[in-house]
Amino acid sequence: MAVNNELFKGTLQTIILNLLSENEKMYGYEITQKVKSITQGELMLKEGALYPALHKLEAEGLLETTTEVVDNRVRKYYSLSKDGEKEVVNKLQEAKDFIAQLQLLLNLKPAI
Amino acid sequence: MAVNNELFKGTLQTIILNLLSENEKMYGYEITQKVKSITQGELMLKEGALYPALHKLEAEGLLETTTEVVDNRVRKYYSLSKDGEKEVVNKLQEAKDFIAQLQLLLNLKPAI
DNA sequence: TTTACATACATAGGAAAATTATGTATGTAA
DNA sequence: TTACATACATAATTTTCCTATGTATGTAAA
């Protein structure tokens, strides 16, 4: 019963930034599990998509990292930088506009 | 004030099919103008995206075409095939699910 | 004990979709 | 005659994501 992942193209950065705006710090695997639980298993965030996206956001200065070792396993924690905190506001507004426009285009405006 | 087109990736087929489910028949340029007017100029559908998408949907048997000459210009009208009529229902449901999941992931659930 | 699965990171190769740029052609308004 | 609108189309490139693969540890089941 998974959703059509095709439609989520372009939304990954916004999803990551928003999760980090709510959670102080998160590591990659944790993000995949969070997305899975929020969508009740419908959206499976793939590692091949997540890690490159995290690296890109870090390279752009939107994310900062710290590394911890837990149970002999390395965890790389990501958190929003100052710039990241600003950008997440923009991204969320863009997402709101996008949803509104898409609902207009598809006649999906929820009944008042 | 255009929206971030990045987010619309993956939604083009659904938008086209839905417009054709509401309009009997439309030609390419008309679709670009319709999208522009519905979104009040925020989403500009590019020809380089639209025409390949139309050709693909036709190749998949979801669209049928007829050609007319108006004012010495050729117009290629597209309309939904039987399969297209079925597929638009699926695509719209997928879009609804997508929006619901995205709102969940971004905490954008409209207040009740 | 060894197999499978979960945790945790990462990257290479390829596919799909869109953008940019370009091309053809006609009609109209400045 | 220049610019813009109408109307189609495609080639080259970019972006984004998925699939597949790789490394490594811990735990539960068979």
TrEMBL record, chains A, B:
Name listed for the protein in its UniProt record: PadR family transcriptional regulator
Transcription regulator PadR N-terminal domain segment(s): 16-88
InterPro entries per UniProt: Metal_resp_DNA-bind_regulator, Tscrpt_reg_PadR_N, WH-like_DNA-bd_sf, WH_DNA-bd_sf
Organism annotation: Pedobacter miscanthi
Pfam families attached to this UniProt entry: PadR (PF03551)
